[in-house]
Amino acid sequence: MHDRTSITRRAALGVLAAAGVGYAVFGPRGSRDPLARGRVQLTYWEKWTGQEALAMQRLVDKFNQSQDRIYVRYLSMTMIEQKAMVAIAGGSPPDIIGLYNKSLPLFAESKAILPLAELAAKHNLTRETYADAIWRLCNVHVRDADSKLGPPQLYGLPNTCSTMALYYNRRLLVEAGYDESVVPTSISQLDALAEEFTIIDASKPGAGRFVRLGFTPSEPGWWPHVWAPHFGGSLYDRDTDTATAASEACVRAYEWVQTYPDKLGVQDVMSFQSGLGGYNSAEQPLILGRVAMCLHGPFLVNVIKQFKPDFPFGVAPFPCEWRAEEGTPPTGLVETDVLVIPSNCKHPAEAMEFIAFTQQQANTEQLCIDHAKPSPLATCSPDYYARHPNPYIGVHEAIARSPRGFGYPETRVWNEYENLFRRTFERDIWQLSLRAREALTNVQTAAQSAIDLARERRRLRA
Amino acid sequence: MSTRRHEDSVRTGLLWISPWLLGFTLFLLTPLAMSVYYSLSDYPVLERPVFIGLANYKRLFTDPTFWIVLKNTLIFSLVFVPASTLLALGLAALLNKELPGWKFARAIIVLPTLVPAAAAAMAWLWLLNSDAGLINRLLSPLLAVFNLAAPAWLQSRFWAMPAIIIVSLWQVGQSVLIYQAALREVPESLQEAAELDGLTGLRRFWHVTLPMISPVVLFNVVIGIIGAMQVFVFPFIMTNGGPGTATYFYSMYLYDNAFLFGPQMGYACAMAWVQMMMVGALTWLLFRMSRKKVHYRGGGA
């Protein structure tokens, strides 16, 4: 007779068998899609959600139906950089990842993603395929152990891209007696128009007195680091690997930014700002008429189409400190979404085959139309312009092709630098607790420490 | 029980808890040990860790952001822990009086603890909207009498921290339940004896009730300190640490270092161990200070 507390062999086997059955029934499995059977299965992680994710899903479905060797399983997720990092470090990465170009220096320098030039060339994807500025953003100058800059190497291929431009309410221009094609060609003109379009109800206190603001650098405020190049400055010098946030041009840019809270009142403009509606809503401030002009990306047109299709908007390159003459190349922030292949990917050739499919002109153009973004390709078909939801997409594409188009600083510490910059912008620059020069000197010092730490990190691994 | 049967029994017990032991070793003990090693290494996650001794710990002392987030976290804890204790204790005492509608009131107080923090944060974002939010809609007419404007709660560097504290206090319901249970455990005879001795109201609460529930107060304060030192969800969703660094807390900076900045997992691990030591030291200090103040039934202290 067994002790009541002892375990019998049968019971132990029973427990193990139950666990096995549970694993078989509920455990992980491959795709249930019958299309997947007998094919090489790839996993593709992408950062888009909502309509943008669905557009990519359609392209993935098209690829899966276009051939019978490869099946791509598509997963849409947020915080992709962090998840990709953990998956690659853990040795179980997806085969394809959709990152932002700003992530490339970190992933490339860490050898976490594959250089793509050779694989891409097999599919005739070369420099000539892409718009110049976009090609530059996809190539990374990997630094060696002594932090010396290496030659540019291709680490990602673009699927959609964005450039930032000035969006304005065309009706207001007409009402103010301007030709609706007249747009500010310099910062001083922008300031003058902003003042003209601002409506203040003096009978109301605080933020309530702003019926409409002509312009504020804090709307939508997603790119606080964007202003320096519009004054001829830059936050980072790649050649010397130094932070240059406190350069004269940068200081001038943020002194200009400070003129807005200075003249409107810090507390009042903050309250006004917090009362503005969300980006993806019928209360988006531009279409609601709460602001007359703002810096925005081409995707704003999706919000306009959805919530106020008859809104009379116009788009122009965001002005610079200097006056833009006719034919001057436009200035603006350029960013691109890139597809990368992790270095420990199991099927790099197949992954590149899928990426090459997405790069075919018809497919890229369809995706860009669905996302309402510019095409990263060197040339676009007439049909693309005819079907694109943003009638001003040409303005965005001109910025992507302009020598004055600028990207994020090409450094592996950009996330930290950007965080430092944003916090200083919110606390010291926008809320006027420090003057621009002092605030930017603080950012520059802190950012340089991060850059120096990255140098030390390279040296440690030499 | 014979030695053999005892050994059998132990073996059986170990076998049955082996899944837990395995999980504990794999998912707690090993990561703990690895985090000690990483805290002594430069570890950017995507590259191998390189041993650098105590450099990460030394760097903490010269990192200005570390001191900012530490100061913010201590300020939050210093306000939140006493405020939540007083609020929870006050609400529990009130509920204990069983006034009409007390069960409904208790449900209302406890309900916020059932709301996921992320959902609550989104709701509070709207409530605290300085232009269109309900709170400022109610406050504005009152403040207008004194010619004052309602605060820009989450945009102002002065009001963002109080806003996060208010939102955190909203989820005080769990402590209220614990205090209420403790208050019900105070023997009625003691209360009556105190009343006969002329102790009423606050004095009776101070001299009789509070000593009787002091172990529960200590428990809640310790849990409160541990929670406050790790405050993350509300500021992460509602302000992302801003404006500027006004609500940038220790755990947020730790997270940023671990997954965003570089990343610097080694530095983040060092921060985590320092955080654990601080919480440990505070808890130890609290137990030391409360030795003579906390009364355990049966005489233990």
What does this structure look like?
The complex is a heterodimer of chains A (about 450) and B (about 300). In chain A, about 45% of the residues are buried. The model of chain A has no long low-confidence stretch (mean pLDDT about 90). Chain A starts with 8 loop residues before the first helix and ends with a helix. In chain A, helix 17 (about 415-430) runs antiparallel to helix 18. Chain A is of the alpha+beta class. Chain A is about 40% helix and about 15% strand. Chain A has helices at about 10-25, 50-65, 80-90, 105-110, 115-120, 130-140, 170-175, 185-195, 250-265, 265-275, 285-290, 300-305, 350-360, 360-370, 380-385, 395-400, 415-430, 435-460, and strands at about 40-45, 70-75, 95-100, 140-145, 150-155, 155-165, 165-170, 200, 210, 235, 240-245, 295, 315, 330-340, 405. With about 300 residues, chain B is mainly α. Chain B has 13 helices and two strands; from the N terminus they run H-E-E-H-H-H-H-H-H-H-H-H-H-H-H. Chain B has a two-stranded antiparallel sheet with strand order 1-2. The model of chain B has no long low-confidence stretch (mean pLDDT about 90). Chains A and B meet through helix 3, helix 10, helix 17 and helix 18 of A and helix 1 of B.
